[in-house]
C-alpha cells in the first residue's frame, strides 16, 4: 500500500501589507519558523480553510454596504435559489431584486431619455412595475399584496413573481 505524505505550508502574502518589499520580508520570515506537525485528516483541514476563506470574503463584502447586492444578499455563500427554476428566470429575479433591468436601464447605454410608464407617465422602474403602478393593481392583486420590493422577495414565491411578470407582458422586456 502506497502512502503519501501531505504537507501544508501557510506563507503570508501581500494581503493587507503596504509595500511589496515589506510583504516579501514578512513572507520570508515565515521560513525560519518551526514546522508544526499536526495530525489532522484532510477533510477537517478543508472545512477549516473553507470557513477561513468565507470569513475573509464576508469581511470584504461587509465593507460594500452601499452595494445594491449587499442589501439582497448580506451573507456570502448563502443564496436562496429555487432549484426548479430556469436560468433565465433566475437572472430575471436577480434583476428585479436589484432594480436593474434591460427595460428600465438600457437608456443609459443608448443615450436615450429614461423610459416612462405608458399609463402613469412617471419614470418606469422595476419598483413601479412590481408594487406601484395603478394600471397593474388588478393583476398584482391576483398574485400578491405587498408594498415594497423587500417584502415581495421575502414573502412571495419566485414562481408567483415570474407568473405576474409574464401576465403583465414584461417577461421578455426585463
Query: Between the first and last Cα atoms, what is the distance in angstroms?
Result: 60 Å
Q: Provide the number of structural domains.
A: 3
Count of runs of 4 or more consecutive helical residues: 9
Order of helices and strands: HHHHHHHHH
Rounded mean pLDDT is 83
* Cα shape: elongated
Q: What's the main sheet like?
A: none
Radius of gyration: 25 Å
Classify the secondary structure makeup into a structural class. Answer: mainly alpha
What's the β-strand tally? 0
Strand content is: under 5%
Q: Which runs of at least 5 residues are low in confidence (pLDDT < 50)?
A: none
Helix % is 40-55%
Tell me about this structure:
The longest helix is centred in the N-terminal third of the chain and has 21 residues, at 42-62. Helix 7 (137-143) runs antiparallel to helix 9 (158-167). The chain is 51% helix and 0% strand. The N and C termini lie far apart (60 Å). It has 9 helices and no strands. The radius of gyration is 25 Å and the shape is elongated. With 174 residues, the chain is an all-alpha fold. It has 3 domains: 7-39, no CATH class; 46-77; 87-167, no CATH class.
Amino acid at each position: 500500500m502506497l502512502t503519501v505524505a501531505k504537507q501544508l505550508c501557510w506563507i503570508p502574502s501581500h494581503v493587507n501589507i503596504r509595500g511589496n518589499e515589506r510583504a516579501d520580508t514578512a513572507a520570508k520570515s515565515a521560513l525560519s519558523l518551526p514546522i508544526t506537525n499536526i495530525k489532522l485528516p484532510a477533510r477537517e483541514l478543508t472545512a477549516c480553510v473553507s470557513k477561513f476563506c468565507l470569513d475573509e470574503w464576508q469581511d470584504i463584502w461587509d465593507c460594500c454596504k452601499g452595494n445594491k447586492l449587499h442589501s439582497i444578499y448580506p451573507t456570502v455563500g448563502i443564496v436562496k435559489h429555487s432549484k426548479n427554476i430556469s436560468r433565465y428566470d433566475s437572472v430575471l429575479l436577480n434583476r428585479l431584486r436589484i432594480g436593474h433591468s434591460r427595460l428600465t436601464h438600457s437608456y443609459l447605454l443608448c443615450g436615450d431619455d429614461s423610459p416612462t410608464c405608458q399609463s402613469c407617465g412617471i419614470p418606469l422602474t422595476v419598483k413601479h412595475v412590481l408594487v406601484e403602478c395603478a394600471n397593474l393593481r388588478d393583476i398584482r392583486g391576483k398574485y400578491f399584496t405587498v408594498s415594497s420590493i423587500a417584502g415581495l422577495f421575502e414573502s412571495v414565491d419566485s414562481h408567483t413573481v415570474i407568473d405576474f411578470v409574464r401576465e403583465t407582458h414584461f417577461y421578455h422586456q426585463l
